[in-house]
Amino acid sequence: MENLIALVNRLQRACTALGDHGEESSLPTLWDALPTIAVVGGQSSGKSSVLESVVGKDFLPRGSGIVTRRPLVLQLHRIDEGREYAEFGHLPRKRFTDFAAVRKEIADETDRETGRSSRQISSVPIYLSIYSPNVVNLTLIDLPGLTKVAVEGQPDSIVQDIENMVRSYIEKPNCIILAISPANQDLATSDAIKISREVDPKGERTFGVLTKIDLMDKGTNAVDMLEGKSYKLQFPWIGIVNRSQADINKNVDMIAARRREREYFSSTPEYRHLAHRMGSEHLGKVLSKHLESVIKSRIPGLQSLINKTIIELETELSRLGKPIATDAGGKLYMIMEICRSFDGNFKEHLDGVRPGGDKIYYVFDNQLPAALKRLQFDKQLSMDNVKKLITEADGYQPHLIAPEQGYRRLIESSIVSMKGPAEAAVDAVHAILKELIHKAISETAELKQYPSLRAEVSNAAVESLERMRDESKKATLQLVEMECSYLTVDFFRKLPQDMEKGGNPTHSIFDRYNDFYLRRIGSNVLSYVNMVCATLRNSIPKSVVYGQVREAKRSLLDHFFADLGKKEGKQLGTLLDEDPEIMKRRLSLAKRLELYRAAQAEIDSVAWSK
């Protein structure tokens, strides 16, 4: 029994250390799934005395009005031997062996949250663990006492605020309710019974505790209440005899108080038949036994929750990315791996695995041909323009056989105009590659994690594209210039020869510039230019792919990698400037994942041993 409860206590203690209570997380929490016992009662109902009786120590603040102003999560851990001590969640490395100091720290920590002179309440819990050979393994949550009226110094909403706080604990199906009611008051007016009935109408998880039995009026007793005749619960009522104020003032220890309590029930005729199930010792044992049975019944649900949460935590950690390496070599390797991931995404766009690369083919198959077609060589080769260039090329000495210089000028002036479409093709592919860079960056999850690295990689990739564009443009324009610098002689040799070999010498020199002759020259030049245009239509895409697309796939980040190798650890660290909130989130999730994996192993081992 104690192994099961001790396991839950360890898990709850680990949850406490990690703050795994669900307040700041959308993920399910182990804390909420673990059974707990909430102590509920009205002000001055004897809640504190009951808790101290179960623990066997004086450690709770006392006074009038609302003394418990924050939830106190009390985790009891049974140890085999050694000195009793206490630890607070907010002071994890400090052990308290003086329980008067524990009482003072509870009061001080309450004041730190709510204000020393204030009577305000706070829903922020205080976590206290007590290790003792005289306790049973339990987790008890002491809640502020329910009240009906706000006193001076308290807001009017405090009555509802306390009730809402209490409900937030006892509404959970895994919460066992310890309803404390004073025997010297009518159960019909009991705050604890009233609120317990609302959240647990069948009484399936409510334990009724009657306090102050020894303070009832003479001639009255609590037998009907203890036997469940006044108000029936699924579990038998348990009576407690608290220490009197005189005992507290005299510092009567708990061992003596428990002995007096046993003597009271065994020696009082009305309660003698119930004595075997009365008293704080019996209460602790009953709660521990019941807690064990609840834990056993919850094991399958706990396993399911833990397995599901582990998957969710692993998914979330994967989304956040790996933590930053601490040494320079690790940082360099990490940056290189991220860059390779980005480079891989970029290549997948070009290779068709991801969309976008098809736009480059559209440039070659549609934009370039359309741009070449729009050049309208027939207008450039009009008879007036042909005649003008032919005569200008002849100079003072008219050509004798064929106007070769005129041909060259006409061809060159037409071919040079093809530089515009060639440059436009280079720029269009550059724009597409630049767009794919930005897409690949947005698709590389690790780069979202590090804004500075993302900016550096983006700038380096774009700079590489610009260098490739400039080289590609130079090479592509050279294709056009090569066509201008050397004409294909065979083309002209295959043309029909002029029968007059330059004309009849008896005619005027200007007769050779008649319309037929000029039209024939223009036609020959247009045929040659169209042949060159068809050639360039095929060679320009090859040049662009070779100089830009192929180079981008081969060496997009080469310059960046070369510069990266020269950086020191501190400079590398500036590139891995992760958002501190993400770092904090990852650390928190990693700790939770470690907790849940440990819980998985422990609960699985318990389940297999059943």
Automatic annotation (TrEMBL):
A single GO molecular function term of this UniProt record: GTP binding
Key words of the record: Cytoplasm, Cytoskeleton, GTP-binding, Hydrolase, Microtubule, Motor protein, Nucleotide-binding
CDD domains referenced in this protein's UniProt entry, alphabetically: DLP_1
Pfam families named in the record: Dynamin_M, Dynamin_N, GED
One GO term describing the cellular component: phragmoplast
InterPro entries membership: Dynamin (IPR022812), Dynamin_GTPase (IPR001401), Dynamin_GTPase_CS (IPR019762), Dynamin_N (IPR045063), Dynamin_stalk (IPR000375), G_DYNAMIN_dom (IPR030381), GED (IPR003130), GED_dom (IPR020850)
Gene3D superfamilies recorded: Dynamin, middle domain (1.20.120.1240), P-loop containing nucleotide triphosphate hydrolases (3.40.50.300)
Cellular compartments annotated: Cytoplasm, Cytoskeleton, Phragmoplast
Domain named GED: residues: 518-610
Domain Dynamin-type G: 31-300
Protein family per UniProt: Belongs to the TRAFAC class dynamin-like GTPase superfamily. Dynamin/Fzo/YdjA family.
Record's protein name: Dynamin-related protein 5A
Lineage: Eukaryota, Viridiplantae, Streptophyta, Embryophyta, Tracheophyta
